[in-house]
Amino acid sequence: MKYVVILGDGMADMPVKQLNNKTPLQCANIPTINDLATKSELGQVKTVPDGIAPGSDVANLSVLGYNPFKYYTGRSPLEAVSMGIGLLDTDITFRCNLVTLSEDEPYIEKIMLDHSADEITTEEATQLIQTVNTKMRTSAISFYPGISYRHLMVWQNGPSEFTLTPPHDILEQKIISHMPQGPNHLVILDMMQTSFELLKNHPINIARMKRGLRPANAIWIWGEGKKPQLGNFTEKFGVKGAVISAVDLIKGIGINAGLTSIDVEGATGNINTNFVGKAEAAIEALESGHDFVYVHIEAPDECGHRQEIENKVKSIELIDKNVVKVIKDKLDAKGMPYKMMILPDHPTPLALRTHTSDPVPFLIYQSDKPKDLPHQKYDEFSSKKTGLYVDEGYKLMKYFIQ
């Protein structure tokens, strides 16, 4: 038996006025997923436990079978593993976004315009982070370039008791109410302020503005954590697995869990990604000795944060056509028995532009034991009607595999 998880990051939502009070999942043309729904087990799962902030880090740990209360040590150290940064047990890591702040006000009065600086390219972002590192690093603090707007800061023997706000949680808001808090918080604040003066007139940003793009005119520091210690996925579930994602967070979780991280050319973490390439990489992994593959697609989440209604619907349709259908058709053609689970990690409602901890719909299909439920569809409300509810999300993976 082969096992495939297709995770549409942030795919779940609330009813949207502009979509006739339907969710993007309800509006999307997803014939393959809805056909699977008539042959599958549907339910809801709470991936983010009460008392923990609803991030992709916590939610994906949960989906992969790791209890966040036991294993979660912060977002950024998971990304550090993917980036190949060797961490000491005493290191504290931080996510370092390149963001767009409003230009004219004093720093603390500025508005968070964009958490991703118009999804800046990795090539441009690398030059900006290298400038930040050259000008701002110390004997204890260094900056490392990642992918697009997602970068990393490492503080050797740094303090860890901070209150730091994710930038995607405060879009279109003044940052004054979301300043760093905790021991040595002024160090963090000073770096963020200094970065604005350093980057606002950087040649990269001048060129971006001439092209009508937002400048990446500041860094925003958040997501602190320590080196994680996840148990081995193969030992835990008895299957050899791989993870396919464009973002360092998911790659890092996979690597920490002993999964093979597979890179796909053209995978971006937004709607302009290589959907088909991810599907083909999943098939290749299953053919080359892996029993399990975790295909993570970031696009719906980014569309939710950016409040792009049409693109969120489109991203779900592309997942159906270019990922789910491609994988299903190829596995069916090979006569390879398999189980497929489709779900989001968390909702990213368009109205809120950030994550919530509400339960999400899941679908489990087994190719050699299809169900006959002709009226089922895959969406937030149909899945709730089934009455199947997994309250502790980390238990779903064991249910899926065993």
What's this, in brief?
With 402 residues, the protein is an alpha/beta fold. Helix content is 35%, strand content 18%.
Structure, described:
There is one protein chain. The chain is an alpha/beta fold. The protein folds into 2 domains: 243 residues, Alkaline Phosphatase, subunit A; 134 residues, no CATH class. The radius of gyration is 21 Å and the shape is globular. The mean pLDDT is 96.
Which features would summarize this protein structure in a list?
402 residues; alpha/beta; Alkaline Phosphatase, subunit A; 2 domains; 18% strand
Outline = globular
| Structure summary, number of beta strands | 13
Order of strands in the sheet with most strands: 9-8-10-1-11-12-2-13
**Biggest sheet statistics:** 8 strands, mixed
Mean pLDDT: 96
Judged by helices, strands and strand pairing, the structural class is alpha/beta
Strand content: 15-25%
**CATH-defined architecture of the largest domain:** 3-Layer(aba) Sandwich
